[in-house]
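To close the chapter, one final illustration. This time we ask the reader to focus less on the individual chains and more on the assembly as a whole: which components sit near each other, and how the overall shape emerges from the parts.
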Amino acid sequence: MKVEHLTEATFGSVVTDIDLETIDDAEWRELYDLWIERALLVFPGAFLSAEGQDAFARRFGDLEFSRAALSNIGKDGKVHHQNDDEVVKSLRGNEGWHIDSTYMPVQAKGAVFSAEIVPSSGAATGWADMRSAYEELDSKTRERIADLEAYHSLYYSQGRAGNLPDEQNEDGTYNLYGYHDMEVSLRPLIKTHPITGRPSLLIGRHAHDIVGMDPAESESLLDDLNDWACQPPRTYHHQWDVGDAVLWDNRRLQHRGTPFDMTEPRRMWHTRIAGDPSSELALNHHPDTVPSDDVERHPTGTWAC
Ligand SMILES: [Fe+2]
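The assembled structure is written out below.
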């Protein structure tokens, strides 16, 4: 395999001359070590098959869920583009910087993400290095946040952005992934990476209501941290070509989608690698607290991010 580190960001490498579906254990080990070190691996023109994407992701751990579409193309082929459309709202929510599944009892370990249909412009995916952000924080802020904990909720993030789903149950709950009626996950603002032992900021759009802090002050602090953290050289945006795939470490990086003309079709495929309860479990959840498996996929197959 050929590896080129991204020079404009504090993380990330481009890997070529590799077939992700046929790598042997020695190549995988090399790739795993590179992933731990670089957090984001970009594989241009990988053209993963459906089974191949999940099988590759499974080498890094159990799956939180297998390959699912992130797309504005409905099951009937309709391209969803209107602002009040359910699919559009779900996709728009992803345009805020976030860490996947921090609103779940166990946050995700990582993801494999690939491009099948890309629009003519826009729609880059961005990542931001929360390890570097923590390391670059001024000492006063670092001390201020050292022992703080915040709640993480998809109700909060989608609601704040005006993107809550329309269809509710009679009691105001939803039968959608991430909108489970369970205790809201509580997480420290600083997370230690289970493999590297390095600390990073655990923030993003789902974080709200720091314990013991006035809500407005909490929102202001979290907004300031997010705004500051997600700036160059800690960010990288990938402009997709059909067939590209990436693998990222969700324990270190935030990510986001970026806007595009939603009258154009786009279809991405996302396989989410489950976190390890020993290091990714929320402070207020028990390892046995897993959501029931009866939640439905979004009507179009879109999942929460
Ligand atoms: Fe996401």
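Confidence is low (pLDDT under 50) at residues 292-301. The helical segments are 25-38, 50-58, 86-93, 130-136, 139-145, 154-160, 215-229, 277-280. With these observations in hand, you are ready for the problems at the end of the chapter.
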